[in-house]
C-alpha cells in the first residue's frame, strides 16, 4: 500500500522534504510521523496513512513533492480506510513536474513577444486548480488569457507569474525604448574562491520566501518612516509590580503584551493603519478585527506569527499565546495558518539591541512598528530633569494609503497609550 502526500492546506500543494523519520524494514503505525515537509514558512510533520512494514521510500531530503506524490510503501497491517484521503489526490501526479519547469518557463516568457501576452484569449475553457481560480478571481486575472504548461493545458502558479511578468513588461514598454535593457541586470556568478577559502551554503526555501516578500514590498510600497521615542517607564514599573503574579500562573510577563495592547488601542482610534490596499478594485479595505503579527528572529530566518483579536484578549492570554507562538516559530513547528491574516506587524529588536531602524511593510498590510532597545535617558518633565526609560520607535507606512499627518497623529496617540497605560489591564 502506498502512502501519499495528503492535502497540505488552503493554497498549498507542494513542499520540500527536510527530514525523513523512518527506514526500510521499519514497522510503522497509522498516524505516525514519517517525514517533515517545509512549505512557505512552515515545517509540518506528515503522518502515515497506513500501518505496516516500510518496503520502499520514494523521496529523499531536498526533494520538492506535490500533493498525491508517493512517499513510501508499506506491506502488512495496512488499513484501506486511512488510505482513502490521499487516494483522492491521485489525479494530481502531473503537478510533480511543476518545480523543474519553473526556470525554463520563465526564460521562455522573457523571449515571448509582448504583443501576444496581454489581451489575447488563448483558451476559452481554462483548466486550473481551485486555489489558482480563487487567486485569479481575487486579483482580477482572466485565466482565459493564460497558456497552461502542464498536461492537458492545466494552469499552475508559475504560468500565472509569467503572465503577470509579461503584463508588467508591457506596461513599462511605452516609457522606454523598444530595445531598452531590463531594469534589473542578469545575475553574474563570481568565483570568489580565486581570492581565498570559501564555504557554500544553499539558500533555504524559507530564505527564498523572505527574499521574495521583501522585494515585493520594496518595489510596491511608497514607504515613509516616522521616528519617535516611546516612554516605557510606567510599563517597566507595572511589569515589576505584577510579574510575580504572572509567574505564579506559569507565564513570564514581558513588555511585548503591553505593546500589543497599546498598539491595538491606537489602531482602533486610527483604523486606516489597520487596512489594506486593493489595487484591483481601487478600494481601501478597513478591517474591523485586529490581528497583530510579531516578528520572531529564528536561526532559519524571520517568521511572523499572528496573534488574533488582540483587542479582545486579556494580558494573561496575550502573554501565554505570545510565548507559545514564539516557541513554535523557533522550533519551525508553526503552521502557515498561524502566520496568515495579520493586519499590522510589530518588529521588536529590543532584546538584541540597536536603536531606530526602517522596517519594511509586511504586505498586504499598510504599516509596521519597529522598536529598538530601551535605555534610561534624562528627560525634562515639569521643569525637572528625570531619568526615563525611552525606547526608539520607527513607524513605516505605505504613503499611497496613509498621509504624513495621519502618521504623526498615530505616533502621538501611541506615545500617550504607553505613558498612560491602564493598570487595570495588567491585573489578573
Number of helices: 9
Beta-strand content bin: 15-25%
* Shape, principal axes of CA atoms: globular
Q: What is the number of strand segments?
A: 21
The chain-level mean pLDDT equals 82
CATH hierarchy: architecture of the largest domain: 2-Layer Sandwich
**Distance between termini?**
54 Å
Biggest beta-sheet profile: 7 strands, mixed
**N-to-C SSE string, H for helix and E for strand:** EEEEEEEEHHEHEHHEHHEEEEEEHEEEEH
Quaternary structure type? single chain
Helix percentage range:
25-40%
CATH class of the largest domain: Alpha Beta
The CATH homologous superfamily of the largest domain is named: Chloramphenicol acetyltransferase-like domain
Tell me the radius of gyration.
Answer: 25 Å
- Kindly give the count of domains: 3
Low-confidence stretches: 78-117, 175-182
If you consult CATH, what is the topology of the largest domain? Chloramphenicol Acetyltransferase
Describe the 3D structure:
The chain is of the alpha+beta class and 428 residues long. The protein folds into three domains: 2-91, OB fold (Dihydrolipoamide Acetyltransferase, E2P); 97-174, Dihydrolipoamide Transferase (Irregular); 207-425, Chloramphenicol acetyltransferase-like domain (Chloramphenicol Acetyltransferase, 2-Layer Sandwich). The chain has nine helices and 21 strands. It has helices at 80-87, 98-111, 130-139, 157-172, 205-220, 233-248, 256-269, 315-330, 404-419; strands at residues 2-4, 14-20, 27-28, 33-39, 42-47, 52-57, 64-66, 70-75, 127-128, 154-155, 223-231, 275-278, 283-286, 292-294, 296-297, 302-303, 306-307, 344-348, 367-371, 375-381, 384-398. The strands form six sheets. Strands 11, 14, 17, 18, 19, 20 and 21 form a seven-stranded mixed beta sheet that branches. The chain has a four-stranded antiparallel beta sheet with strand order 1-8-6-3. A four-stranded antiparallel beta sheet has the order 5-4-2-7, with no helix packed on it. Strand 20 and strand 21 form a beta hairpin. The longest helix is centred in the middle third of the chain and has 16 residues, at 157-172. The radius of gyration is 25 Å and the shape is globular. The N and C termini lie far apart (54 Å). Residues 78-117 and 175-182 have low confidence and may be disordered.
Amino acid at each position: 500500500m502506498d502512502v501519499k502526500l495528503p492535502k497540505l492546506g488552503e493554497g498549498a500543494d507542494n513542499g520540500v522534504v527536510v527530514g525523513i523519520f523512518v527506514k526500510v524494514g521499519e514497522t510503522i503505525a497509522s498516524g505516525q510521523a514519517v517525514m517533515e515537509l517545509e512549505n512557505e514558512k512552515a515545517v509540518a510533520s506528515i503522518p502515515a496513512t497506513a500501518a505496516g512494514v516500510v518496503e520502499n521510500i520514494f523521496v529523499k531530503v531536498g526533494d520538492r513533492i506535490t500533493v498525491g506524490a508517493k512517499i513510501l510503501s508499506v506491506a502488512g497491517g495496512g488499513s484501506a480506510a486511512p488510505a482513502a484521503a490521499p487516494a483522492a489526490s491521485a489525479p494530481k501526479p502531473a503537478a510533480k513536474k511543476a518545480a523543474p519547469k519553473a526556470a525554463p518557463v520563465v526564460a521562455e516568457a522573457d523571449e515571448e513577444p509582448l504583443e501576444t501576452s496581454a489581451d489575447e484569449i488563448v483558451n476559452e475553457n481554462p483548466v486550473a486548480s481551485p486555489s489558482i481560480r480563487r487567486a485569479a478571481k481575487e486579483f482580477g486575472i482572466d485565466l482565459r488569457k493564460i497558456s497552461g504548461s502542464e498536461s492537458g493545458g492545466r494552469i499552475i502558479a508559475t504560468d500565472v507569474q509569467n503572465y503577470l511578468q509579461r503584463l508588467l513588461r508591457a506596461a513599462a514598454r511605452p516609457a522606454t525604448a523598444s530595445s531598452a535593457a531590463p531594469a534589473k541586470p542578469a545575475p553574474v556568478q563570481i568565483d570568489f574562491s580565486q581570492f581565498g577559502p570559501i564555504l557554500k551554503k544553499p539558500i533555504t526555501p524559507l530564505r527564498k520566501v523572505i527574499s521574495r516578500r521583501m522585494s515585493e514590498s520594496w518595489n510596491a510600497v511608497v514607504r515613509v518612516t516616522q521616528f519617535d521615542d516611546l516612554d516605557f517607564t510606567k510599563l517597566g514599573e507595572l511589569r515589576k509590580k505584577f510579574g510575580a503574579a504572572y509567574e505564579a500562573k506559569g507565564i513570564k510577563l514581558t513588555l511585548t503584551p503591553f505593546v500589543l495592547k497599546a498598539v491595538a488601542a491606537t489602531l482602533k482610534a486610527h483604523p486606516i493603519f489597520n487596512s489594506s490596499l486593493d489595487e484591483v478594485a481601487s478600494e481601501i479595505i478597513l478591517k474591523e478585527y485586529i490581528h497583530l503579527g510579531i516578528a520572531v528572529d529564528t536561526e532559519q530566518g524571520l517568521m511572523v506569527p499572528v496573534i488574533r483579536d488582540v483587542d479582545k484578549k486579556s494580558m494573561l492570554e496575550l502573554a501565554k499565546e505570545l510565548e507559545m507562538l514564539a516557541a513554535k516559530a523557533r522550533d519551525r513547528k508553526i503552521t502557515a495558518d498561524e502566520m496568515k491574516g495579520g493586519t499590522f506587524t510589530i518588529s521588536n529588536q529590543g532584546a538584541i539591541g540597536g536603536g531606530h531602524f526602517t522596517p519594511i511593510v509586511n504586505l498586504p498590510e499598510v504599516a509596521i512598528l519597529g522598536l529598538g532597545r530601551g535605555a534610561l535617558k534624562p528627560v525634562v518633565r515639569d521643569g525637572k530633569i528625570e531619568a526615563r526609560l525611552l525606547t526608539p520607535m520607527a513607524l513605516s507606512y505605505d504613503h499611497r494609503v496613509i498621509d504624513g499627518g495621519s502618521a504623526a497623529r498615530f505616533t502621538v496617540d501611541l506615545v500617550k497609550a504607553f505613558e498612560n497605560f491602564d493598570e487595570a489591564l495588567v491585573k489578573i
